[in-house]
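Worked example 2:
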Amino acid sequence: MKTCTGFDSPFGMSRRASLASFAGGLGSLALGSLLNGKAQAKPNQSRFLSREPKAKRVIYLFQGGGPSQIDLFDHKPRLNREHGKELPESVRKGQRLTGMSGNQSSLPLVGSPYKFTQHGQDGTWVSELLPYTAGIADDITVINSMYTEAINHGPGVTFMQTGSQIAGRPSIGSWLSYGLGSTNENLPNFVVLVTANKGGQPLVSRLWGSGFLSGKHDGVRFRPDKDAVLYLNNPNGLERKSRRMMLDRLEELHQIALAKTGDTALETRIAQYEMGFRMQTSIPDVTDLSKEPDSTFELYGEEARKPGTFAANCLMARRMAEQGVQFIQLYHQGWDQHSNLPGKLPQQCLETDKASAALVTDLKQRGLLDDTLVIWGGEFGRTNYCQGKLNDKNFGRDHHPRCYSTWMAGGGIKGGYNHGQTDEYGYSVVDGGVHVHDFHATILNQLGIDHEHLTFQYQGRHFRLTDVHGHVVKDIIA
């Protein structure tokens, strides 16, 4: 009989091989359960849940480029009264500006040329550019006191999407996929929809990447064509039955490798292959808008009939929410109005206003708004002074991180409520400031997660979406 040493087991196997075999056996059990649709964690099974969630899913309507809060939500009559005067140093207080306007010899204040009126039970100020959003004022909380450290687009968007200005961290959708698991066997946890044919600051896939988390938590981008997800459909000549046989044989090979190595990445890989196989039938169904009645397109607008438009993506988001997708990220670019804001901003609003409001209305009438958190906003705001030369018909606004506006609806958030306040010039937050980390902490809270507990150990450190900061904004919670 072989003697047991520090490196051998009494069964004639090395300790490493024995442990690998044991891990492989457990892996096989887990994988078998996964492929039967039983191992995908339900929200109430997540070890990260600390309270009963008020929201089951999130739809994030991200407006890339920095929408001008001064022309949309943050009404500042004083700017109109002092239009053309210099930005007072007592307001700026020496704070840094971007290189695009920091060297200007003059920083003339510029009031909004758009009429503001109050709407809803709390008298929410909304610009005439957003008549449909004004119509849902009683369903939303408008936060006029968001602020960030990021002053340029790349770090700003990355901060809003990942909780860090430095690229490489998991996106918020990936954190939620990791923290909550999945309630849907046939669609990804995290889906990304981008408005087609829009100019503006570029979008890169790392914004919806999983960073140091497992690749199964990546966002899956849906395209507005017959191949909604790249490389999903079978090659010409390959039947679905043959694909099934190929995946079965591939699983057997992975099981052999898993028994030898105990590499759990193999489990992730075969699970992803299986998800892709199921998505071959689920995706054509969820993306087929022809099943929607005419009344739906009257609500969202005729643009919703055109694949890839913001309106079509909003409608798609509602359909995905119905199917249990947990995080649905929409991107709409083009809000970066350094010049000719009067010519560009109305078009951006025309493309997004009706569909954004329609999504909230549609979810509400289907009984989904109560447990769906809808978010609208960008990476920072715009300056209260003019970038470049000011004249009556043409002006622009530079980047402004010190205050900007976002709205939320559903998912346990108050309706008909305004949070936070900026100074009379719309330059700095004076009450109820909401930092990016606070924003993320509040989203997680509505999903039943304590942001301090959702962590992942990487390179010797426990990381989290909110880094080492963040407070839940309790005033906006119903």
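The chain has two domains: 20-49+240-286, 53-228+293-455+464-476. The two ends are 70 Å apart (CA to CA).
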